[in-house]
Write a structure and sequence with these properties.
Rossmann fold; globular; alpha/beta; oxidoreductase; GFO_IDH_MocA-like_dom; 6-stranded parallel beta sheet; NAD(P)-bd_dom_sf; Dihydrodipicolinate Reductase, domain 2; Gfo/Idh/MocA_oxidrdct_glycsds; single chain; 9 helices
Length: about 400
């Protein structure tokens, strides 16, 4: 088959990752990079794409059948809708939108055009996810009482100044929602939801920040689904370091055993009561190549927009919750350079705290974190949120 023509919107930042993927697929004749939509010229070493800041015009000029949107979160909806209406399928970087209203605007364009929109949750391309779903469905783990998740990374102050929207909840009056739960650890929330069925009935949030930012860098959420299933995710960007031993994970708690998914490594560990730990590492399909296969042959999408709506309900709960609470500096370990500038903010014991949240399905305040306050509950009412303060 002829290569599928692709336009990349947003070639800097995470867009560089997409360029690497495009380079590999172009070398195999799967795609052709036909255009780049960016505010500045971009050098590409494997193609000579047309370039323009006008996405719809670029799609029309190049005849691109597929567009990758890898731009600031607050631009996702406008660009995805523009691409769809210009006749192009879309691979949309996560999070798909900063609010449920914006996501539904994209969904309306998908329905209107009949084209596909895949969301860039790479973890949903892992064969470990359906493998774990089978373990849950066939009763191997017994009755499941809940799913816990933990993630502990470190981020320097430069991470939050890398772009105008970094670390922001809003920018110029427009929702951004660049928080720990909704961006760097969005995969934890989305993957946990992919393991459990049922509508969301209640969301509890605790949002904090040690860095002097608007958004959260240390936060947790508890999601209650119809049927009683509980998901609790606790994350931080204030760990002492990013260690291979502390890569983010999900753990499914059953009364006959538990299964732990290291979703960044596609590693699944299963321990049944009284038995040894069985470890398997699974293959991962690329979401761009999956979308190309969908366009060519109708292959099912791995992360279709419709499957991510519950994730964006969680984003909405974070968006409408209390503003993140500052963590006083006396609870932090500040690392400084020779000039006295803060280069790292660490919350002592936070790695172990996130692990406890995942193990006990508890929130920070319930485990006695000295900087934590009680959660705010969001009840889902007719597709929106009503808060119990």
């Amino acid at each position: 088959m002829a290569p599928v023509k692709v336009v990349l919107a947003g070639a800097e930042g995470h867009g560089r990752h997409h360029l690497d993927v495009l380079r590999g697929l172009a070398g195999r004749g799967v795609v052709e990079l036909a255009g780049i939509c960016d505010l500045r010229p971009v050098e590409v070493d494997f193609a000579a794409p047309a370039q323009s800041p006008d996405l719809a015009g670029l799609i029309g000029k190049t005849g691109a059948r597929l567009t990758i949107v890898s731009t600031p979160i607050n631009t996702h909806a406008d660009l995805a809708v523009a691409a769809l209406r210009a006749g192009s399928h879309v691979l949309l970087e996560k999070p798909p939108a900063p609010s449920l209203r914006e996501q539904r605007r994209i969904a309306a364009a998908v329905a209107e055009t009949g084209l596909a929109c895949q969301v860039g949750f790479q973890s949903l391309g892992s064969a470990a996810v359906p493998a774990l779903r089978r373990l849950i469905a066939d009763g191997t783990l017994g009755r499941v009482r809940g799913i816990g998740g933990a993630g502990a990374w470190d981020r320097s102050p430069a991470y939050f100044t890398r772009s105008p929207w970094a670390g922001r909840r809003r920018l110029d009056g427009v929702d951004v929602m660049d928080g720990a739960l909704t961006n760097p650890f969005a995969h934890a929330v989305a993957t946990a939801l992919a393991l459990a069925d049922g509508p969301i009935e209640e969301i509890e949030t605790e949002l904090y920040h040690a860095h002097p930012i608007e958004s959260d860098d240390t936060s947790c959420v508890r999601i209650r689904l119809g049927g009683g299933q509980v998901i609790t995710i606790a994350v931080t960007l204030c760990a002492p370091e990013r260690s291979p031993r502390h890569e983010p994970y999900l753990v499914v708690h059953g009364d006959r055993g538990r299964a732990t998914l290291g979703y960044t490594r596609d590693r699944l560990e299963v321990q049944l009561a009284g038995g040894p730990v069985t470890t398997t590492v699974h293959e991962r399909a690329g979401l761009l190549e999956n979308l190309v296969d969908h366009v060519r042959t109708g292959t099912d999408l791995l992360a279709p927009l419709a499957a991510t709506e519950r994730f964006t309900q969680v984003v909405d709960a974070v968006r409408l919750a209390h503003e993140p609470v500052p963590i006083p500096e006396h609870h932090q370990l500040l690392r400084r350079d020779a000039a006295g500038e803060v280069v790292s903010r660490v919350l002592p014991g936070v790695v172990e705290l996130t692990d406890r949240c995942a193990a006990e399905l508890a929130l920070y305040s319930e485990l006695g974190a000295p900087w934590a306050r009680r959660p705010r509950r969001a009840l889902l009412v007719e597709g929106g949120h009503r808060y119990d303060r």
